[in-house]
Amino acid sequence: MPCEDRPIVSFVMATHNRRAVVVRALANVARCGLNQREFEIIVVDNKSSDGTRETIREFTPHLIALDRNAGSCAKAHALPMVRGRYVVFLDDDSYPMAGSIQRMIRHFEQDPGLGAAGFTVHLPDGRRESGALPGVFVGCGVGLRAEALRPVGGLDAHFFMQAEEYDLAFRLAGAGWRVEVFNDLHAEHLKSGSARRSDRTTFYDVRNNVLVAARYLPAPYYRIYRADGLQRYRWLAAREGHRAAYRRGLWAALLREPLDRWAFRRRRLTPAVLERFYQIDTVQRRMQELARDGIRRAVFATLGKNVFAFHRAALLAGIEIIAVGDDYFSARGRFYRGVRLLPMAQALALEADAVVISNMASAQVDHAMGRLVRETTIPIYGWYGTQEAGITAADESNSKSRVADENQETTPAVLTG
Question: Which residue in 64, 212, 315, 346 is deepest, having the highest Cβ count within 10 Å?
Fold first, then answer.
């Protein structure tokens, strides 16, 4: 039994002027399945003015009242107060689903090297939310071992929002801790998956992703992923009408980037940790297997955040990439490293030997697979979904019943960062 004055789990969330939403989340957290002595709830309030603070005090005595809005990274202010052996980061509109906290505790107890246990995050419309790289958790649902979190410094409050999960995951892995996302841990996230991006989101996406690359990626990958990321967010900004926010984010990144590149020079990802997250060699081996099986021309499906690994692997394997199919990013005259970006239907109409889902976000891969098995008889290879699959025309009908029923939407899945 735990000591009465030390809970097993500390739940931490940040909020700002969302009283009704945070009340619902807190009520669900209180039903996490642990008894009251086994958990605590710490809420960081970002200078709310709608009565949120007074309402929160009805649920927990552990309220940190800030005099400014510090964004989702305000959770960093709770670390000195945390008493639990494990810390669960939540958003003010997310909560763990039944049984998940008990299973999370078992994962930590069974693996002393586990530093972070990411939850599978579910959205109200039935879709999932996932990180863009294997092992990177979503910030609205992750359990962390307190003894791992404290030495690496917790969340970086400077990030405010966006990409803070990558920054923390890389620091944990760099310190020797295992970072994993588990299919048996589930969190509900009440936000809408189709919610419009704000220009503030664009600003922090641009700034923070540049800083993550500067801090952790060794040469030559630093320049490669920096360029790819800026292209990605420039296209997103153009689509959303956020060009000014993109420019502000880039300017803010340029001001801080040299300092972070130097200050974090001893925290570059080692080859093993780089491979753990970016899987450059793994994708190369899989692409070589396709080449040995006779694949010569391929269409890439979806412009994933780590599409570079797939592009590089295809070139080394001698596979021609004839197009990248992506309805969200495609536009007249757009190319990724010399490869045309086309609407998916146009890309699938080309004469290809295979379709490769060039994405590592499991939610995106599952969504793309569900759509592709309905729209093409070309063999489909998706290696990073919840179930890895190489689907051929011969078993397409079976694949439809196994995959497509759970993936009826045709809009993009949701990923962080």
Answer: 212
